[in-house]
Amino acid sequence: MPKVMGALKKAIPAEIGGEADAAMESSAAAGQAASGRKVLPIVEGVVLVAALLAPLVLQDYLTVFATRVIILALFALSFDLVWGYAGIMSFGQALFFGSAGYGVALLARDLDITNIFLVLPAGTIIGLTFALLLGGFLLLGRHPSSVIFVSLGTLTGSYAADRLARGWYYLGGQNGIPSIAPMTLGGYEFSEGPAFYYFVLGILVVVYLLCRFLVRSQFGLALAGLRENEQRIAFFGYKAQHLKAIIFTIGGAIAGLAGSLYAFHEGFVWPNMVGVVVSTQVVLYVLFGGSGTLIGAVIGTVIIEGVSFWLSDNYRDIWPIILGLLLLLVILFRPLGLISFLLGERERVGSFDAVRKEKRDAAS
Amino acid sequence: MPLLEAAGIKKIFGKLTALDGAALTVGENEFHGLIGPNGSGKSTLMKCIAGAEVPTQGKVSFVNTDITAFTPTERARAGMSLKFQITSVLPTLTLYDNILLALQAQSSLFDLVFSRTRELLHDQVMTMLTQFRLADRAFDAAAALSHGQQQWLEIAMALAGKPKLLLLDEPTGGMSLEERRVTGELLQPIKQHCSLVIVEHDLDFIRDICDRLTVLDQGKVLASGTVSEIQANKSVQEIYLRRA
Questions:
Q1: Per the CB < 8 Å rule, is B88 touching A240?
Q2: Chain A touched by B118 (CB under 8 Å)
């Protein structure tokens, strides 16, 4: 157990975990970093092409499964932003995911509102609002809040929401809200299948690009400083807690968007969706794929969900044990996640001078 | 009116009294050395002034404002800066990005998100790098620098926000003689707009660069005055002899 804790600690960004990062680089990855070759865009391109082709080669029921995975990858993105980039240990990310799911389910059930231009913004705003409230409370003290306080605070929020949903008759109690009407756009109904898949993939790509823009901007540079040493950048005059609260809120909004898509895709919401189980699941996606890279979160989600799907088909009784062992192995031996097989430290931390470089090249 | 005035500073860690009524007064454009044997409380006093520790008792005033309870961010925005004893440059980032990180601390969110700071602050970044003799390495990773150069980069970062007071905790630790000499040269010009408090073991360095000295011993001020006054002080000589 202590060893596991040690490994987990290593996987936590530098601000919390310390110096482990550099030591864990494989020499191949380090070599690539030194030569300045960029691996990340290639990985992103390959994943995008695979995602675009998937419905063409998959059977229908697998396309439905793949849609669910894409939605969960969007959710994982929100956690990577919060944890991988701002170093906020949120163990309650499902709170924003699930509350948005419940919110849009109620809109559909009680008010017959299913138009995507209403329900998706509504879900996003629900996630954003909850994150703003919880983040404001947990992060915006006069002095920086401890990692333990934030992680327990988010965990408690998620747990409380789960209990509340279970006990509240209006929300359907233990059973949740079944048979939600499909999302609509004019007369068109989004039902499971390739159209839904490409719609969700489109959203994932747009959100991904926005996140990518954000973390590579000078705001991202400030976040890199924040992860490395929060106190240091406070001494420069940064309002470090504000930076964190902003990212936490953006993360909540993305989780809310994902949650509303999930509710309509699955056609029902249930208490687990706001609870600790789903909160932990998203932590695992990002840990497994590799935090602080965005694409790592997507890859982690696809692999964990894909492997569990395959295992549950072929090893009906013992698949959770196999999956658990697999996760442990990765966390023990690759604390920076699968992406660290491909990515050097320098590229993982990122570069922030895209604009400048172009100018320099143009000048010379 | 002095720039910085710390008075009656007491700091107790459990049973250990690290500071017992220590005081420090620094004027404008003054380089002030803080010296004393190991364990005399120099670093703790620095931390209390910088806001990394909260004093158990006492008051710190800066530019006529009581800042005892200010957070680090508030102190930085009031015009105080510090260089940590342990280097904290971001090793995988370029020198340019390290300086920019420090320079853009008070920029608006809009300028940060749309990367306008990189255009707006470019000249200032290059000026800082030139001043600290690092301009030709602007686009190298900070990890590639020598230890001494990393310290200079760190000092440059601490000066980025144009502070009125800079706190330096052991700036020449681990440096070669030549690097120490250059550090002294690099610090001289900032006197025009900035005061300095230096904790340093290298007494020759301190003597060369400082205007005034404060000597701490067992958490109390043993003596305070100009460099020549301190050098002539009997009890100061005694504690340094005792240590030797």
A1: no
A2: yes
| Long-range CB contacts for residues B49-52, cutoff 8 Å, separation at least 24 | B49/B4, B49/B6, B49/B24, B49/B80, B49/B167, B49/B197, B50/A235, B50/B75, B50/B80, B50/B82, B50/B167, B51/B75, B52/A231
Interface confidence, given as ipTM, is 0.85
* Residue A210: closest C-alpha in chain B: B113
Task: Tell whether A146 is within 8 A of chain B (Cβ).
Answer: no
Q: Flag whether the pTM goes above 0.90.
A: no
> CB of A250 within 8 Å of any CB in chain B?
no
Q: Please, what is the average pLDDT of chain A?
A: 83
Nearest to A236 among B96, B97, B105 (CB): B105
DSSP string, A3-63: HHHHHHHHHS-HHHH-THHHHT--HHHHHHHHHT---HHHHHHHHHHHHHHHHHHS-HHHH
Q: What is the pLDDT of residues A260-295, one digit of tens each?
A: 999 999 989 999 999 998 998 899 999 989 888 999
- Under an 8 A CB cutoff, do B141 and A142 touch? no
Q: Is the model's pLDDT at A201 over the cut of 60? A: yes
Query: Between A217, A235, A239, which is nearest B82 by CB?
Result: A235
pLDDT tens-digit profile of A106-138? 999 999 888 889 999 999 999 999 999 999 998
